[in-house]
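Course assignment 3, question 2. Fill in each field.
Student: A.L.
Task: Predict the tertiary structure for the chain below.
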Amino acid sequence: ARPEALRLRRELARKVFRHISAYDEAIADFLTGDPGTAASSANGEAGSMEVAAGDTRPPFRLETGSGTVLRYGENPDQAATFYPVGAEAEGIAALEQLHGKALSYNNLLDLDGALLSLAPFAWSPRPAVCIVKHTTPCGLGVGESLAQAYRKALASDPVSAFGSIIAVNRTVDGETAAEMSKLFIECIVAPGFSEEAFETLTAKKNLRLLVAPTRSEPVEGEPASWWPGADDRDRGTARFLAMHARRPQPEVVRSVSGGLLVQDPSPIPFYTGENPGWTVATERAPTPREWDDLTFAWGAVYGVKSNAILLARDGATIGIGAGQMSRVDSSRIAVRKAADAGLETEGAALASDAFFPFRDGVDAAAAAGVRSIVQPGGSIRDAEVIAAADEHGIAMVFTGRRLFRH
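Answer field:
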């Protein structure tokens, strides 16, 4: 037989025995655990039944393909391997690299963070750009053109953008590529690159250019207004973004010493202008412009590491405070970042990924000129926080859900 025929036979045999093995495991789970839970685990689906804390569930299993050895891990003295999950390439494993050096361990982490942070803008009718450093955004922007969105995202924190990962939701054109070529960038992931853009960007031999896959099957929540006339590739990539962290399996898996943590993925707060469940908590309601800024800010803060505070105005981040132990410190960092970038904070919107435990965060925001705030609510001191917002004439909206990202 020809070599390609032997490879096909081997691959088909592998799939058959994997399937039989999964069936046997499902039977064993049924005999040792709850039948409904075992069935959902065997099907690779998140169990829909409610379980109480402390309940036990059947063993959690992941099917991986052969691993690719990476140059090293987070640091040169650490070995590392990337294992794709599932029978078909999904998520990061589905990205196609067109140019540049091999991807590193840190590149893969940052690409995941960039796609996660861009996911809320999957249904955006306007081009969107996310610039990520160390898995968290340092700039996000939407604009009438991709080049405008890029300039707005870069203006948020041009210093941190050095050596960044950039994800965009539209094909990169010549104008955008010319702007990007001025900055040292590690990776760019996009639906595609025009001939002019590809020629410009490949002049940098180490710059990694990646194309996101497209999905032809419809996804829940696709917009009705601009969607029918959109480019097929842009629509296909939008579906891929909207499903990020939901395929190949609808669970988020992280390792800790001695075990695995598994949870459902956090629902994506899509930037569509629709905000079901939001309530105005203050005497003053947001203006139409503030509503748009708050919706953008809530989508943008989704990918920021906790404690997260994000300032935004006119479809762009202007200051981001991330990963601090104190929420008020994150507020101060966001304001300082905006000042360092020469951006005006007067009239800005602020998003907080969790409730304000004290009024000091609101007071700090007011001192910077913030005029509207979006946050989950739910603190035992909500009344105190709302009173502070009313004192400063700030419109505050509660979303009713938290966006922690640890």
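Instructor remarks: The longest helix spans residues 3-32. The longest strand covers residues 136-142.
Grade: pending
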